[in-house]
C-alpha cells in the first residue's frame, strides 16, 4: 500500500510529460538516373547475400566435412555432450578459415579488392569471385556425384569443368563432403569399437552383466585418445584431406 502511494506522484509526472516515441517512415522517391536504380539493386543484393552468408559458409566451404567428423568422433567416444556443440562449432569454424584462407585471399585480390577500388564492374567482380570458389569445390567433388546431379537436373553433359552449372556443382560438392566425412568417421569408429568389444567381453566373463560397459569403456577411450594425441591427428588429417 505504501509503495502504491509513493508511485502516484511519479505516475502523475509521467502523465504530464509523455515520452516521445520515434516514428519510422518508408517511402519511394523518383530516381534521378538509371544508375541510382542500379546502385539500389546492388545494395539490396549485397544485403541479401549478407543475410544468407552463414548458409553459404556451411555449403560452399570445408565446414560441413569438419563438423560432421567432429560429431562422429564424439559419438564414437561415447561422450554425447562433451565437448559441447559450441566448442566443436567454434573449432570447425577456425579450421574452415585455415583451409579456406588461400581461396578467400584469391577472391579478394582478384574480385573484391579491384571492385572496391572501382577498377572493375560488379558483374566482373562476381565472375572473378566465383572462379577460386568453383576451383576449390571442383577439386573436392567426386565425378560420380556430378554425373548424378547432371542426370537429375536434365542438363547436357558439359564439355569442360567450367561448363558445369553452379547449382549442379554446389549440390555435388555437398554430397561429396558428406560421403568423405562419413568415410573418415568410419575409420574413427574402429579403435573405439574394439575397446567396446574388449570391455564387454571382460565384464561378461566376470559375470558383471548388470554393469553398463559404457561406464568402463569411456575412460579407456579418453585415455587412448589423449595418449595418441588424438586432436592433433584429427585436425591434421582433416586439413590434409583437402589437399
Automatic annotation (TrEMBL):
Protein topology in the membrane: Multi-pass membrane protein
Main location: membrane
Protein's cellular compartments: Cell membrane; Bacterial flagellum basal body
Swiss-Prot/TrEMBL keywords: Bacterial flagellum, Bacterial flagellum biogenesis, Bacterial flagellum protein export, Cell membrane, Cell projection, Cilium, Flagellum, Membrane, Protein transport, Transmembrane, Transmembrane helix, Transport
Signal peptide: none
GO terms for biological process, alphabetical: bacterial-type flagellum organization; protein secretion
Presence of keyword Transcription: no
Membrane-spanning ranges: 39-66, 87-104, 181-206, 218-239
One GO location term (cellular component): bacterial-type flagellum basal body
Keyword Mitochondrion recorded: no
Superkingdom, taxonomy of origin: Bacteria
InterPro entries: FliP (IPR005837), T3SS_IM_P (IPR005838)
Listed NCBIfam families: fliP, PRK12797.1
Cited function: Plays a role in the flagellum-specific transport system.
Recorded family membership: Belongs to the FliP/MopC/SpaP family.
Protein name: Flagellar biosynthetic protein FliP
UniProt organism field: Denitrovibrio acetiphilus (strain DSM 12809 / NBRC 114555 / N2460)
Name of the coding gene: fliP
Amino acid at each position: 500500500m505504501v509503495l502504491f502511494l509513493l508511485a502516484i506522484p511519479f505516475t502523475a509526472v509521467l502523465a504530464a510529460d509523455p515520452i516521445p516515441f520515434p516514428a519510422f517512415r518508408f517511402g519511394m522517391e523518383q530516381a534521378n538516373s538509371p544508375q541510382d536504380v542500379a546502385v539500389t539493386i546492388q545494395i539490396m543484393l549485397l544485403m541479401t547475400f549478407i543475410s544468407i552468408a552463414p548458409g553459404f559458409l556451411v555449403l560452399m566451404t570445408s565446414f560441413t566435412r569438419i563438423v560432421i567428423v567432429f560429431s562422429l568422433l564424439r559419438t564414437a567416444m561415447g561422450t554425447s555432450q562433451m565437448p559441447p556443440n559450441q566448442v566443436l562449432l567454434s573449432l570447425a569454424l577456425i579450421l574452415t578459415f585455415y583451409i579456406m584462407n588461400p581461396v578467400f585471399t584469391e577472391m579478394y585480390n582478384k574480385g573484391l579488392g579491384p571492385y572496391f577500388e572501382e577498377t572493375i564492374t560488379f558483374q566482373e567482380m562476381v565472375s572473378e569471385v566465383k572462379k577460386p570458389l568453383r576451383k576449390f569445390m571442383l577439386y573436392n567433388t567426386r565425378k560420380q556425384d556430378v554425373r548424378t546431379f547432371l542426370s537429375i537436373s536434365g542438363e547436357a553433359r558439359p564439355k569442360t569443368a567450367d561448363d558445369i552449372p553452379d547449382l549442379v556443382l554446389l549440390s555435388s560438392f555437398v554430397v561429396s563432403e558428406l560421403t568423405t566425412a562419413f568415410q573418415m568417421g568410419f575409420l574413427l569408429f574402429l579403435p573405439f569399437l574394439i575397446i567396446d568389444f574388449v570391455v564387454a567381453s571382460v565384464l561378461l566373463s566376470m559375470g558383471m552383466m548388470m554393469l553398463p560397459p559404457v561406464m568402463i569403456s569411456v575412460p579407456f577411450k579418453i585415455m587412448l585418445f589423449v595418449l595418441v594425441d588424438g586432436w592433433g591427428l584429427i585436425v591434421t588429417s582433416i586439413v590434409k584431406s583437402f589437399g
